[in-house]
Automatic annotation (TrEMBL):
GO molecular function: arogenate dehydrogenase (NADP+) activity; NAD+ binding; prephenate dehydrogenase (NAD+) activity; prephenate dehydrogenase (NADP+) activity
Annotated GO biological process: tyrosine biosynthetic process
Stretches with biased composition (Low complexity): 315-336
Lineage of origin: Eukaryota, Viridiplantae, Streptophyta, Embryophyta, Tracheophyta
Species in which this protein is naturally found: Rivina humilis
Name of this protein: Arogenate dehydrogenase alpha
Length: 375
């Protein structure tokens, strides 16, 4: 019978680090990592683990490099044949998941795409693993793997949900100071289980990551408002095919970098961020609302400008006792050629509808005559 501990905390992303140390851990090492110090690869005294990575694509290989560097034994399995890449990194590659599981890795780390995770997990020969195996994941959404694991994994397995919030691009110069989110969803209370989960987390602590312990639900709320928006903006800007110019500002350079960074991730990853985070749709709606609001703000200013021009024309007409005087309220003579030439009306490409403020706004203003009709 296994007793489980559930770490409960309400840390916000980026604030506070609920380390929850178990057995045999040096407090001094915690403060070193808290300060974001980079610790060289093999300096950790943590227990060395045998880690089986499932999904050995872009991110799986990226994880493996640091794990090998830290002295852990890494095995890998993927749908495609990555035996050469594995050999280069120093990883034992398996083309059959049964063979990998029969090696009894202490940790199984799922690095599969969000969309394929359920299928992959269901197809794994879990019965070949040790009963107390620790299963972890790196998916960029967290509530989904959490509930999948609780549903599909034997109750003896420990569960650790993680999200290294960096990738092969942003983390290529080292992981120092980069956020690593984790939730100890289910960890048995026996010392060896606590030691094992901490040894796994030490890989990231020792690399200098900013460790953020947070519930999966909280992660998804924060990630939809930050990561999904980042990817969404990158994808939208990519559609504009922005070009390098001889007069790039720093702001523009950062936009180009954003496009570059997000475009390198697979579309499947982006789609997963949207489909498997229940908060993403709300953020998409908010982005749409924000775009429309700013657009209407601009149109609103244009509207005021046009109205001012009309008023000026009207008052100067009055002063001069001009017979071609514009009557704003009735719109008489709005098509008068002399008057029209003086108005700063939008170019023909911009339809008059675009400079009309939204319904609520419109009610607040006087009616303005444009192109001879009431708007
Ligand atoms: P990805 O496109 O999200 O996932 C690629 C991986 O999924 C490959 O290992 C691929 O295996 C496997 N896969 C895809 N479809 C599959 C299927 N139908 N059956 C079996 N395996 C399948 O790209 P990624 O960047 O490598 O990301 C992997 C995971 O890391 C994702 O869950 C992502 O959310 C997470 N993550 C990524 C980053 C990042 O910066 N890229 C950062 C943090 C977390 P094969 O290559 O063998 O086909």
């Amino acid at each position: 019978c296994t007793a489980f501990t559930k770490t409960n905390n309400n840390n916000a992303l980026g604030y506070g680090y609920g380390y929850g140390y178990g057995y045999g851990y040096d407090k001094n090492k915690v403060s070193s990592t808290e300060q974001g110090d980079e610790v060289s690869g093999s300096s950790s005294n943590s227990k060395k683990l045998k880690i089986g990575i499932i999904g050995f694509g872009n991110f799986g290989q990226f994880m493996a490099k640091t794990m090998v560097k830290h002295g852990h034994t890494v095995l890998a399995y993927s749908r495609s044949d990555y035996s050469r890449a594995a050999h280069t990194i120093g990883v034992r590659y398996f083309s059959d998941p049964d063979d990998l599981c029969e090696e009894h890795p202490e940790v199984i780390l799922l690095c599969t795409s969000i969309l394929s995770t359920e299928r992959v997990l269901r197809s794994l020969p879990l019965h070949r693993l040790r009963r107390s195996t620790l299963v972890a994941d790196v998916l960029s959404v967290k509530e989904f793997p959490r509930s999948l694991f609780l549903q599909l994994l034997p109750s003896d397995f420990d569960i650790l949900c993680t999200h290294p919030m960096f990738g092969p691009d942003s983390g290529k110069a080292g992981w120092g100071g980069l956020p690593f989110v984790f939730d100890k969803v289910r960890v048995g209370s026996q010392p060896e289980r606590l030691t094992r989960v901490e040894a796994f987390l030490d890989i990231f602590r020792d690399a200098g990551c900013r460790m953020v312990e947070m519930s999966c639900a909280e992660h998804d709320r924060h990630a939809a408002g930050s990561q999904f928006i980042t990817h969404m903006m990158g994808r939208v800007l990519e559609k504009l095919a922005l070009e390098d110019t001889p007069i790039n500002t720093k702001g523009y350079e950062s936009l180009l970098n954003l496009v570059d960074n997000t475009a390198r991730d697979s579309f499947e990853l982006f789609y997963g961020l949207f489909l498997y985070n229940k908060n993403a749709m709300e953020q998409l709606d908010r982005m749409h609302w924000a775009f429309e609001t700013v657009k209407q703000q601009l149109s609103g200013y244009l509207h005021v400008l046009v109205r001012k021009q009309l008023m000026l024309e009207t008052s100067s007409g009055n002063d001069n006792n001009n017979t071609n005087n514009i009557n704003i309220s009735s719109g008489d003579n709005i098509n008068n050629k002399d008057t029209n030439n003086k108005l700063m009306l939008p170019s023909p490409g911009i339809s008059s509808a675009k400079i009309v403020p939204p319904v609520q706004e419109k009610e607040k203003h006087d009616l303005v005559m444009l192109n001879g009709s009431k708007r």
